[in-house]
Amino acid sequence: MFLSLFGVLLFGAQNAAAAPITIGNPIVPGGITDGAQTTYVAKASFGVGAIGSELQTWSLHAHTGTSGRSITPILLELISGANYALRAIGETQTVGGGISLGVNTGIAFNVQEGSAAITSGNFFFGWKDGGQTFANAGVINFQGQVVSMSGH
pTM for the complete prediction? Predict the structure, then answer.
């Protein structure tokens, strides 16, 4: 399923020797409320300019009515075709806990598993609705382009 992701996420990656690299659009409310329990991948890669950097922060717009729901950021590498390898799992955030309704910027990725190092131009940001061991309906409302991935 392809959906829109216009201005919902902002990704930050930083190489110690360079200025921060930002990928994404301004954070604004989108038109679709995510009611599914799934995993998504943003269709904008970090690109070759991010090689040698680490994913440090991310941002989102938490939609009205999502209090108590969680979202977990992930870092994926496109291997071939539509096959991704999970490279890092970030810290789960809960609306009303670590994040609030509306715009949330500069959320620390805080690696829980794997490595946030970007080692190729094929790295993508994604997220899972829920935490590592549970699922819930989505937090983000969006317009733009993402790919829904089956399974958790």
Answer: 0.82
| Bridge-based pairing state of the strands 2-5 and 32-33 | unpaired
Round to whole Å and give the CA distance between 90 and 99. Answer: 14
Residue 8 near residue 34, CB atoms below 8 Å: no
Written as one string, the DSSP assignment of 50-103 is GTT-EEEEEEEEEPTT-TT-EEEEEEEEEEETTEEEEEEE---EEBTTTB-SEE
Query: In the chain, how many domains are there?
Result: 1
Task: For residue 124, give the amino acid letter.
Answer: F
**Residue-range definition of the domain harbouring residue 26:** 2-149
d(CA 74, CA 71): 10
What's the confidence (pLDDT) of residue 14? 56
Looking at residue 35, its amino acid is G
pLDDT, one tens digit per residue, over 56-89 is 888 888 888 889 999 999 999 999 988 999 999 9
